[in-house]
Every structure is written in C-alpha cells, then in structure tokens.
Write the structure tokens for this entry.
Amino acid sequence: MPRRIESLMLTGPAGKLEALLEEPEDREPREAFLVCHPHPKFGGTMHNKVVYRIARGLRRAGAVVLRFNYRGVNLSEGKYDEGIGEIEDARAVLDFLRARYPALPYSLAGFSFGSRIILTLGCESQTVGSLLAVGVPAAYTETAALGNCNVRRVFIQSTNDQFGPVPAMQAYFDQLDGPKRLIWVEANDHFFAGSLDKFEEAVFEAGAELLGG
C-alpha cells in the first residue's frame, strides 16, 4: 500500500506550526510517535538528517510519525522561547496526533535539544508509552534533572558525541531510575557522521522492541 504523507499547518500556542505526518510504507500503524528536532538557534529543523533517520526507522518498525518545526522555524509562526514555548509547541502537536489516532498508543522521540523536550514532556505524562532520546546533551548540568521517571526510556548516543560524551552520558544514565536502556553507536560526532545507516538500524531495532514486534 502507498505510504501516506501529509504536509500540515497545525494550530500552536504562538501561531501555526509546520508539520509532516508519515505512515508506514507496508502496514497499518501500531503506534503514534511525535519526533522533536534539535535546537532552532543552531539550524535545527524537522528535516535534520538525524531526525529524518529517526522518523524513517520508526516508520519501518510500524509507527506513524509526526515531525514538526518549533515556533519561528521555517514556516512555523512565532519566535524562539528559550525551550519553554517549544515544550508547549510539542504539547499542542501531540494533542493533534492523539486526536488523529485515538486508538493507538503514543510515544515521543527527540534528538539533542529535542531529546530534552521529550524527556520533560514525556515524564509529565501518565499515559505515554515510551521515550526515545537521541543525542542527549548530557554534558550540560540542566540535563541531569530531566528524564527521571517510570516511563520506559531508550537512549541512543554516539560514542563521540561532543555534547554528551561517554563519561557524562554514562553518569547521567546511571542516576536514572525506572525502565531504561542505553544504546551506543560508533560514530564520528553528535550527528552520527559516518554511521547514519547504523544509527537508523539502532532506531529501527529499538522501535520494533518498543512496539512489541
């Protein structure tokens, strides 16, 4: 069956938010994933190559995926709001996704700055299925306070991530309670340079496990 792709303009708290909804290529979706992109002040968009690979890996595992641009990014209205407004953007887009697929369980994924958004939003929820946090900036002190909850969490990290190097990421992971898993991908930098295919396979395998198949 053909893959359904929709370009959307969704209502957000600061104006319209540009989004892209994609269903699996070969089956009906079994779960709905919201995917959050990296820092908008450093060129992050929903078309970032790591975000694209996250979305494709999750679709291959059987999820419908909704990516979006935070306020002020590309066609999204508004302006950057120090991460506070961006969490509210994600919340609004998640509300749309849940209304669109009310029968499906839902989960969150995010890369870099986006991983911090989903660790914040997901740990507030009593109903989110799982969190897939990629490229966590564990070297930053404010990250230590995020993600400590009973939601199932999978972390995928480059072995040469300059913002979450191995010692910092391992220390962050070790202090978390609840169900968790850490997957290392041998790569050249934060953006999984030289290993994007290997990274996507890690996302696919983690997604298949999270979706129960």
User: Anything to note?
Assistant: Residues 5-210 form a domain with the Rossmann fold fold (CATH 3.40.50.1820). The chain has a mean pLDDT of 96. The radius of gyration is 16 Å. Strands lie at 5-12, 15-22, 31-36, 63-68, 106-111, 130-134, 152-158, 180-185.
